[in-house]
């Protein structure tokens, strides 16, 4: 089975699966993909042929369909991952098939289950195709992709964290619109904190991803100034060079080089790197990475060296590191023992001479003032350049032809840059160089634009050195008289680049004085030839008339197409305007719902506060009742204390009277003692007994009076305490009355606010109803526009039905 039959079978299986999504049809599509895998013909999809392009378009449509089975989606994503390894195929997947938006839709559809394998492989493919690619922020599903990335970067770490960080680093690099969108997020500070936390991660790849995102977002802001401050920049350089030298693989090294190249564009950081004390040792270790066998790593290292060369101070340091004293010794060792693998970085550059970055690197190095040091290096460089100028005898395939001639053009650019008469003459390579260039020019006729550029630059080299090589001048002028030179010369003179026009004029100035240079017009001497020319002129005139008619038809079709394009553009503008209005209305609706939720929360809190105030008021009423009972008890105690005070006054008066009587009785007893011996003993004894009994009664009355005085004093102290408690209760009652009045005012204000919130809620409901009515009107207008588009497609000859152009907001 040939490849074309496999493609047709795959296209048929895809169409059957689109019509009926069953397991049998899905397995049939997978079987056809396995056949193509088995034939190792995956890269056939990268060609510009119609059948592979149609198959690839259908496969991308299957991925975009959320109803496609997971196994089939994974199989197609694996195929696209292999295609994305080629730069041209990756660019075609972005520009023609819009694969980024499609994969973003796949991630959005499966965002509820991020642990699924389809999400992981989609993220890895997105990271691969967005590397060094500028993504348009307005593309479909990009905002959802950003939300997914930020959410999972801030979530607990899992297997999808690293692809999310890598994809975010790709999207933020050199994309101001996406950077502004991320900076405008509400949770950007938390996102920064998460990225800074990742700088201490055990995986160097995660560290370089996080540092790349921080450099893209914060390099010229306050956070970036703190992160890349003079105090911290040396630690950052140490971290970057450590990752670059001891990285986990090619992927980590690529992102580390990109990060350092971006940092070197800042003049302050470039100055800090020049003053970094360990820069020379780090540079020697970086140059040692050129000895590896990985071409991708070597290419990124050369790109980093190019970035160093863009800074004048670093460029001189790099030149001395590469062309130092040890370079001469290594060069001698290489010549003596060519089988030994060289250890100098400049020798390793010759081994990587197939890389296009090598020629740019060589140009920057030889442009310095180290000619005495560079001369031994040129002895090794020129044979490599001559080898690159040779065209293989066997014809190359389509993609290899373009790469070969691009490499030849770069080689000639390097030759023109290093073409110094003194050096090339001393090396003795001029004759080999020029004859190789002449042979290459005679065979360069495959690619028009690239071949023309090669031919003109080769003539420029021969014109510059034709006086230094024997017999070169005759060969140079012979080539100028060749008829095949007219096409590239006319292309150069009509080019839009000033350098090409200047080069074409220079060659024309050299070739115009030659006798056999093609003239503008030749004289016709043969009559038969003139008759033949007349016949051909008639045929040409008829063809020209047909061409004019076809041109008129083409202009009419172009006019109709322009009108259709204009209508489509108007429709797209109206659609974009409607989508923008719909987004605005959706945002307004979300704001209104959010405000409504906030107001509901405020209302609930106010109601809770009202309930608390009511409970406080009831408590205050109970306290007031208790205070009133205490006040009544206080009044009764006050009356009792007045009564006790009156009784105390009467008892004190009686006490005074008894005390006077007691004193008189004492005097009587004294007199009786004196008269005791004068009165008879019995009568005296009776009188004394009577007096003593009276005295005892008086003493008993005195003791009872002293007890009453103590009770009266206790009652007075109790009355004072009650008076003090009464005063305290009155003050507490005044305070509680004030608080009660305040709570009453607060309750009134809350009731007013509740009424105003209810009015606002009613107004918002009215506005929402108006917005819903407006959305219905806009949906009707979009339906009308979809019918207009269907009519436009039908007028332009398309077969698109009305239901295929319906729009969903």
From TrEMBL:
Domain CIP2A N-terminal stretches: 20-520
PROSITE patterns: ARM_REPEAT (PS50176)
UniProt ARM repeat ranges: 54-93
InterPro entries: ARM-like, ARM-type_fold, Armadillo, CIP2A, CIP2A_N
One Pfam entry name: CIP2A_N
Keywords: Coiled coil
Coiled coil: 550-675, 705-781
Protein name stated in the entry: Cellular inhibitor of PP2A
């Amino acid at each position: 089975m040939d490849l074309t039959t496999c493609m047709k079978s795959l296209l048929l299986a895809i169409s059957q699966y689109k019509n009926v999504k069953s397991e049998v049809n899905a397995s049939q599509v997978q079987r056809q993909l396995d056949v193509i895998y088995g034939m190792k013909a995956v890269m056939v999809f990268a060609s510009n042929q119609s059948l592979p392009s149609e198959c690839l378009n259908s496969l991308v449509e299957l991925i975009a369909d959320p109803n496609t089975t997971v196994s089939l989606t994974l199989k197609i994503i694996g195929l696209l991952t292999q295609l994305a390894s080629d730069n041209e195929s990756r660019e075609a997947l972005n520009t023609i098939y819009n694969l980024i938006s499609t994969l973003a839709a796949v991630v959005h559809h499966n965002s509820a289950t991020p642990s699924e394998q389809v999400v992981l492989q989609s993220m890895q493919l997105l990271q691969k195709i967005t590397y060094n690619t500028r993504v348009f922020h307005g593309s479909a599903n990009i905002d959802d992709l950003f939300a997914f990335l930020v959410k999972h970067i801030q979530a607990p770490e899992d297997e999808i964290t690293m692809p999310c960080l890598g994809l975010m680093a790709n999207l933020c690099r050199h994309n101001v619109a996406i950077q502004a969108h991320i900076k405008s997020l509400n949770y950007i500070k938390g996102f920064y904190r998460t990225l800074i936390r990742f700088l201490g991660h055990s995986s160097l790849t995660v560290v370089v991803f996080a540092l790349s995102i921080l450099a893209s977002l914060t390099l010229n802001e306050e956070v970036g100034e703190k992160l890349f401050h003079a105090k911290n920049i040396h630690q950052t350089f140490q971290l970057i060079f450590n990752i670059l030298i001891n990285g986990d693989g090619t992927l980590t090294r690529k992102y580390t080089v990109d990060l350092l190249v971006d940092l070197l564009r800042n003049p302050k950081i470039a100055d800090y790197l020049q003053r970094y004390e360990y820069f020379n040792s780090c540079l020697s270790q970086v140059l040692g990475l050129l000895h590896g066998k990985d071409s991708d790593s070597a290419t990124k290292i050369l790109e980093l060296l190019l970035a160093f060369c863009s800074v004048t101070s670093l460029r001189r340091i790099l030149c001395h590191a590469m062309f130092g004293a040890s370079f001469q010794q290594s060069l001698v060792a290489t010549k003596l023992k060519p089988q030994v693998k060289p250890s100098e970085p400049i020798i390793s550059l010759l081994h990587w001479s197939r890389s296009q970055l090598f020629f740019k690197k060589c140009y920057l190095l030889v442009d310095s003032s180290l000619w005495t040091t560079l001369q031994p290096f040129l002895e090794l460089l020129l044979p490599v350049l001559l080898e690159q100028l040779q065209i293989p005898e066997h014809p190359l395939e389509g993609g290899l032809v373009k790469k070969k001639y691009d490499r030849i053009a770069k080689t000639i650019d390097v030759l023109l840059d290093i073409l110094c008469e003194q050096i090339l003459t001393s090396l003795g390579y001029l004759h080999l160089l020029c004859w190789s260039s002449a042979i290459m020019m005679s065979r360069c006729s495959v690619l028009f634009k690239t071949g023309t550029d090669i031919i003109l630059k080769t003539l420029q080299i021969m014109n510059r050195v034709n006086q230094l090589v024997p017999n070169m001048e005759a060969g140079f002028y012979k080539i100028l008289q060749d008829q095949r030179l007219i096409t590239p010369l006319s292309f150069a003179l009509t080019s839009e680049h000033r350098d090409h026009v200047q080069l074409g004029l220079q060659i024309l100035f050299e070739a115009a004085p030659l006798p056999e240079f093609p003239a503008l017009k030749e004289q016709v001497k043969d009559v038969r030839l003139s008759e033949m020319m007349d016949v051909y002129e008639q045929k040409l005139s008829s063809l020209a008339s047909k061409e004019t008619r076809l041109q008129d038809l083409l202009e009419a079709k172009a006019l109709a197409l322009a009108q259709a394009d204009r209508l489509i553009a108007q429709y797209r503008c109206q659609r974009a305007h409607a989508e923008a209005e719909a987004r605005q209305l959706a945002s307004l609706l979300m704001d209104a719902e959010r405000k409504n939720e906030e107001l509901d929360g405020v209302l609930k809190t106010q109601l809770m506060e009202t309930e608390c105030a009511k409970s406080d008021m009831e408590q205050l009423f109970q306290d007031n009742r208790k205070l009133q009972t205490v006040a009544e008890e206080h009044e009764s105690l006050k009356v009792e204390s007045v009564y006790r005070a009156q009784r105390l006054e009467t008892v004190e008066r009686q006490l005074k009277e008894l005390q006077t009587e007691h004193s008189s009785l004492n005097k009587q007893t004294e007199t009786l003692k004196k008269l005791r011996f004068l009165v008879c003993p019995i009568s005296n004894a009776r009188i004394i007994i009577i007096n003593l009994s009276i005295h005892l009664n008086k003493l008993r009355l005195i003791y009872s009076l002293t007890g009453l005085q103590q009770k009266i004093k206790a009652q007075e102290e109790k009355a004072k305490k009650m008076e003090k408690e009464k005063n305290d209760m009155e003050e507490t009652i005044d305070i509680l009355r004030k608080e009660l009045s305040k709570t009453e005012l607060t309750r009134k204000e809350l009731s007013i606010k509740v009424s105003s919130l209810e009015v606002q809620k009613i107004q918002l409901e009215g506005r929402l109803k108006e917005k819903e009515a407006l959305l219905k009107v806009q949906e009707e207008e979009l339906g009308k526009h979809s019918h207009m588009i269907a009519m436009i497609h039908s007028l332009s000859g398309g077969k698109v039905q009305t239901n295929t152009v319906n729009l969903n907001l």
